[in-house]
Amino acid sequence: MTKAIPLNKCRGLMTAALAWLPFATWATWTPQAGDEWIPFEAPPVIAPGTALDFSSFRPTGRLAGEQGRVVVRGDHFELEGRPGVPVRFYGVNTTGSMNTPEPGTEAAFAANAARLGYNALRIHHHDDELTRDSPDGTTLYAPAMAKFDALAAACITNGLYLTTDLHVSRRHIPWRLLGEDRAGLAGGEMKLLVRFHEGAYSNYLAFARNFLTHVNPHTGRSYAEEPALSWISLINEAALGEFSAADWNSFPCYREAWRRFLQERGLSLSDEIPEDLTKLDAPEVRAFRRFMLEAEERFVGRVKGFLRDELKCRALVTGTNGVQYPQELQVAMETVCDYVDDHFYGCGQWFPSGDYKPPAHLNNPLPFNPPAWNAGYGAHSVIFHRVFGKPFTVSEFNYGTPNLYRNVGGLLAGTFAGLQDWNGVWRFCWAEWKGPLAHPEESGFACFHTSGDPVMLATERAMVCLFLRGDMKPHRKTYAFVLPERTMRDPTAPTADAVPNLQWLAWYAKTGTKLDETPPDATWSRTAPEAFLQTDAEMRAQVLPGTAADEWPPAGNGDVMVDMNGQRFAVATPGTCGCFAEAGTVAAGSLEATFDGHAALWVSALDGTDIGTSRRMLLTHLPDVLQTDITFEQPNRQIMLSWGRLPFLMHRARATVSIAVGEGAFEVWALRYDGTRVQKVPAQRNRDGRLEFAPDTALVPGTATWLYEIADVTAVGVSPPIAVDFTERGKLRPVGSAQVVCAPDWSVCGGRNDAVAE
Hints:
758 residues; eight-stranded parallel β-sheet; eight-stranded antiparallel β-sheet; 15 helices
């Protein structure tokens, strides 16, 4: 007998079906090359000596490790050979097969990375690649290691300090070798298993030993000895709060450890794994969160002892990183970790089929106003994971392609990281396979590939100036969340987690936690768990007294404007001034810009002086960029059906800018993607002496323009650099009185910063 479906349920089923129907049947939208969308090419290469060559901005020198190891001094990093001088690090992730590049491409990549301004690299998703065909998942695969060694050596030679994780994605691990009577291979289960299962833990140590004691023939040192290998995270994205009750119930060892915890403390609670760790009033949840704290603390301390005592590895150690992060784990971060690391993303993207393959849902979250706080723009949940008195790093962040607002990502993240005085940041990622190294001209869109997105590449320079170079100075005010250690460890005590509605706080004060005592320089402090139970109004009364709920005074130290009620952002520092708007005029210190549409725009001094006295500057005018034949279900771009193909398409955008410059005869040049000059741009001083010109993405016929060099022609060292033609490889091209031979790959005349032949 067929049972009738209730009308309300039928409506629900129809709504669900129609939500997916556009993937197949509705009309689609694709940007069309022409006056509105300008086709252009932009391989991720930088010519030496151009305005895009940021290698001199790096505070750590030309050779990684030449001044000793990276060490911790209070809440910052230093180099052993430069005591008393805090240093920061900025870089990118290399992922998957990119860690085993084809011979000859690694040197070109590392030299280009230095010109981007990077002084650090995160080796990521490397462990499965390096143990390919291993019978136990720990034996290193010699051909892969040979390529990896060459990459590591090239990075060290080009001043890139290294960080990595001891477990990311190894998959070739037979269950039976772990002591489990089951067929097949262990994979993602290892992230939780290594904390509680001795067989998994032994396998984990075996890989760590093989990897870190391997001697790189190019350096003559093992990775344990390598001073450039500065940081080690024990497991990638495996904070114990990330795991579900199903994960915890998948192996008897977890339940046994939980039961033992209850028995040792005389707690008469159910030994069932709690289903929802956010039910903070439940006694089982409170106890289980303390159980996780002790498990993390024990694991980190145990592995750290192995690294220090057996392998003699002096790299700095942190536990794990991730988003679902019970506040109790802050205790372990402070007691056993050398530094604290976390990740954040502002993508607003969901790929139902997995592996970043369309169709994709894109909500294009607005950068500044709620609910974007939870999407990773600016103040993210990571602000509650910093520990005062220890360095803090973010080894993964990104805003995701083709997010409409990714063009403001560098200004936002650079400003935010500078205000919070973070110590290291890495973008995820350059690429997830080796192809873009051998054929950069073929680099195109992928969800997080910096090498294939001209927008991401451009915003990296804002990150380098604002964060790495230190243009954005840290907050002078601090808000400390004090964690009473006894309470945080007590399985019967109340608990609370930081809540999203307090995240705006990070625009007005450095934020973090500290066990038991208020840091001496704290402006405000509150003790947990009450600290995390404050309402928005209570926090405002402390930090922004007398302001209305929709009123946002200047942020930072008065040099940042965050319009959380609209779509504007501005930052004004002596070395970099920038802004973002959908339209209209925005003032940002020495810079004033009028937009005719959606764009980010910023100017940075390039000669170590302030904008007002600089003789050479770079201005970036960055609207939206898509690809040819990228396809969306509708013009609102909420459902992407196809990534499209090269060439890129830049949206037509115009602006007018005025900059408060010093004395001099300034010229403005439109630049090519590699930094070489293309065309002089009309510019003049207004009656106030400010330099004015009009950026236009259609300025140069046949391509898009978004980069401008501003130079005083009377100054020494700012003459036009030699142009390198990457489109005619291997051919000799005369430029003025000089000649250069273009390399047969993307090595930019040999892949060295100084390799310009005359």
